[in-house]
User: Fold these one by one.
Assistant:
Number 1:
Amino acid sequence: MHVPDGFINTPVSVAAGVAAATAVAVSLRGARRELDERTAPLAGLVAAFIFAVQMLNFPVAAGTSGHLLGGALAAILVGPYTGVLCVSVVLLMQGILFADGGLTALGVNVLNMAVVTVVVAYAVFRGLLKLLPAGRRSVTVAAFAGALLSVPAAAA
């Protein structure tokens, strides 16, 4: 899912970087409301888990691979604003440490893998919870649907 360095031209990379920086700034403000004594450590654990799971790649087509995104998990466990921050930090660390996606494409990757996946997954999750009867099964179905729909939304 990572867009590599040099794949996107400079004007698009700059525009995506500005949009991603704006989304992260909005998320920083929103995360103040979401984070408390319980969710702050959970946010760190979510980011660490997403980092580890994204290192596991599986072949998709000739010469390409995919991996789990983690946006739905982050959004559901710690909220959409904190979820965007968790996935953004993971993408930044992967770009710096492993050149996975690269730094010039960081804005595009944050938009695709952090913002789109988190927002779509959270919206689907919350929307389905309002429609489905209350219970554990409904939470599971809503989380599954949110995760399932967020990946093609990010790919699109």
Number 2:
Amino acid sequence: MSLFQVQGLVKRFGGLLATDHVSLSVQHGEIHALIGPNGAGKTTLVNQISGLLTPDEGLVVLGGVDITALPMHRRVAHGLSRCFQVTRIFPKQSVRDNLLLAVQAHSGSSFRFWQPRAQARGLYAQAEQLAERVGLQHSLNATAGALPHGAQRTLDVALALASAPKLLLLDEPMAGMGPDESQQMVQLIETLREGMAVLLIEHDMEAVFRLADRISVLVYGRVLTAGTPDEIRNHPEVQAVYLGTETLETAA
């Protein structure tokens, strides 16, 4: 059984059919990319998956559990975490404090003066482990908002990892990055498959073809096709929806 499944998802906004009976699945340990031209419905689909929108029809299933009607926080409890297009960090706090808040929120504990010292040490250890996992161990004392853009995006990923997700939604993680920062993010994402599945929404086709095990192509709210990177790269209909003569590597 797939770790994650979307079955026949439909979302209407008045007369607009934004999500047209979309079905896809993500396997354990897989990086599955979702691509498509602007206006294809990617954001609407991801908002339904994460719980920001409720579908009109269809199912969202994670780990064999129907989470279609659950709010966002309960989906997180079932193992779904999301990074948004716009970075969501606490910019005036240190990197360490950002990570402490995240691990505290998901551990069910709080920083109180009567809290056992061992428990507080455990939270600090978890925060430092997260920092090391994403390569921010040397920036723990830095103010989050003063970090370079790529490092802020990396911190955002670390905050999402604090919940130990089964499925991580990455919504355009390379947006606004330079080549070096994008390369670092690609390297980080490659390591994530060891402990979870990843659903990646990204316009950087070079990164998509490097990272993805499978790719689903969304056009006008429908899944046009799904397959391996080689199958998608050479698919004539996929090339056509990217205006024919453009290659997927240069499409936005």
